[in-house]
Amino acid sequence: MMDQALGILPGAWWAWPVALFAYLVFRLWYDNWGGPLKPAEIDAFLAQMDRSPTAGYTDPAVVRAFLEADDGREFVMSNLVRLHPEPQPHPVSGQPTKALVLMQIYVKRFLRVLVRHGGHPLLAMRKVGGYVDAWATPPDPGWTIVGAMRYRSRRDMMKLSLDSGLSDAHPFKTAATAMTFSFPAQVIVAFALRPRIWVALVLALMASLVHLLSLIRILV
Description:
Blueprint: H1 2-8, H2 15-30, H3 39-51, H4 60-68, E1 75-83, E2 88-89, E3 96-97, H5 99-116, E4 120-126, E5 145-151, H6 154-161, H7 164-176, E6 177-185, H8 195-219
Antiparallel strand pairs: 1-5, 1-6, 2-3, 4-5
């Protein structure tokens, strides 16, 4: 009798296909399904970049070399930023505003665009000391922030850089920033769980709890 009850129990099984479906939707968003960039795409992106409000901040030759070496994999953009120590004119109102406040306005808008293009932050850190281990390098300019952003693909990086939402936010970044540089990297070793793993674990845990609670309800 109990076996029959468990077999027809509403809710005792549906949580698993729902969790699987949710994970598949997540992977459709999280993974790059378009493959590496094609030469025509690269030419089109670079032509648009030349006409964008952010033109002049990046060497097109460096960008082209990075795009032409596309392997279709995700990557991490590492960023070092030195904020202005004194208030800067607000890009809209012109009022003196702390650089950190201006950067927060930019980051809030940037993250919305980043997530829309399949990316997300990995790390955001505040610098708390000078160079501890350094040689044959210029003096520490006084970096303020260190960040790492995950990009789904190089194609998504270009789409993000040309997104109108980011173009509108870019003046806040330039107003807040005294000095910055960024470079792309790929993860070799990571001891933190990546989203592909922890999202699967969270969904499996939720499905298990739903299944277990439904079994307890029928048994009592």
